[in-house]
Amino acid sequence: MLILPKFLFYEPRDMSEACKIMSEQSGNPKIIAGGTDILVNMKKGLVSPGHLVSIAKISGLSEVEPTNGNISIGAHLIVAKLTEFDIIKTKFPSLARAAAGLGSPLIRNRATIGGNIVTARPAADLPPPLLAMGAKVKLESVKGTREVALDDFFLGPGATVIKPDEILSRIVIDAMPPFTGSDYIKLGHRRSLEIAIVAVAARITLNAPDGVIKEAKVILSAVAPKAIHAVSVEKALTGEKPTDALLEKAAKLAGTDCSPITDIRGGAGYRRAMVEVLTKRTLSTAVKEAQGK
Ligand SMILES: Cc1cc2nc3c(=O)[nH]c(=O)nc-3n(C[C@H](O)[C@H](O)[C@H](O)COP(=O)(O)OP(=O)(O)OC[C@H]3O[C@@H](n4cnc5c(N)ncnc54)[C@H](O)[C@@H]3O)c2cc1C
Question: In this predicted structure, what is the pLDDT of residue 203?
Fold first, then answer.
């Protein structure tokens, strides 16, 4: 069916008004942000909210607030803006890279960072770099506000810990420690309008430009029901000097950390092999960035 079912549309101007509407569960209210996902699902008859609550007009939700190197990103910031802000390009470059490859210019100019997170697709582009950076999300309802580490947010495909009356208001990323580098690479059949076959995000923090790896975060995407940490890789890297041989050896472990499926876009064996290749490449870039090269 291509016609949208009937619904009531709300456009609150502040969070308290939005939370109040979301608390009235009789209308089965749902947030609409960019609408690139929910409108498609409504047309397909997969969801049929009686009330759609837009967060577009809520002050501050489409802005980035830098404070002492930390950033707090409003959930309604469109994906295209993540590629434009200097603070994101310079301090959190892997997030800017992931945003640049999401969908197409049309999608990037409608889809929001909050919507990309809440949708919880196993191959979504923004969660991997955000997970690698230890991001947190702020969830608000009439009952109060809670902050949840993104590591604890996703439960599985399309499933998160967000409650029906909660609104994701902000994404908070702490300033990265000195000597940190990061990267994100997405593999697809095409450059545009392509959901990842495999994607990897890496973040490396050294104890000095020529020192050992103090902290390693490697996130594998589209190879498990949700984006996951490559735990063996992270363990193998920590405390070690980042030589090419070490990165090669650690990247090989990434294939054992995931559980890819075979589908129309790629076989499980191919995905596993590509996870290893992309892990090596993202680690190399992250290490070079951390060394200031
Ligand atoms: C042609 C096309 C190509 C695409 N390509 C890609 C791609 O390459 N990579 C990729 O990752 N995704 C891709 N997507 C998916 C999609 O664009 C994203 O998931 C998008 O980021 C969703 O954001 P939105 O603002 O449009 O969310 P909406 O559609 O407005 O909402 C999506 C869901 O999240 C909920 N929601 C949204 N914001 C909030 C909030 N702040 N608090 C609580 N709940 C909220 C809504 O209720 C709804 O259930 C593509 C989609 C299309 C149509």
Answer: 98
